[in-house]
Amino acid sequence: MTQQLFSLAGKVALVTGASSGIGRHSANVLANAGAKVIACARRLDKLETLVSKIRSTGGTAEAVQLDITDNASIDSMFEMAHKSVGLVDILVNCAGIAKTGGFLELDDATWDQVFAVNLDGLRKLSQEVTSQLIKAKRPGVIINVASVAGMSAAPGWTVYATSKAAVIHLTKNMATELWRHNIRVNALCPGYFPTEMNQEFFASDEGKEYLKRLPPRRIGNLEELTGPLLLLASDASSYMTGVALPVDGGHAIRLV
Prior knowledge:
This protein is of the alpha/beta class. The chain is 44% helix and 15% strand. Strand 2, helix 3 and strand 3 form a beta-alpha-beta unit.
């Protein structure tokens, strides 16, 4: 009974940013839970490697190249996805970029680039998926990958933290409107996990010192996101919507 609660058998899951890091891990987790996965990102070669791995273990997955800042790319992705696996039941908005720097250092190009990926692309994909689900009168799940940086001030990460705070607030507004259509929307807010965006920092002396201020004294393992992701994606969270769920190793109570 418990396993059935977390099963995604018969579901179609679309994961953006699936070429590396949390997005890649998410695609593997959802496929292992029984979902047919559409793995999307700009780097098609990395997606094809991921899909090959999923298929080798008996899973079902398709690789589709996607630039979420390009409307034509979004339209093409949905067309290909529908032909191969059908309507999307679960959307995991994981694509994102990070830019460091303080408020006074920000320029228009950096601000626009981060928001185009972290917020605008997420919004466009979510609108398309929910519109199709509502038209088909089918339930659905949206998981927006935000960050603990969006839950409090993050000096030196102004534009990134602001974009992720906007993702959390958008999640809550989406949840209030889409509940009546049986579509749940939640945000997963990871702390520090190994990704291409942060590996250089945590290999540095500064990064190592920062980790000493976290209760676990270490970066998270991607496997530690598996349970929270499956919770939000499955019927195990059928009465949860509008939640911003931190998985941060106590980042919010870190030692000063």
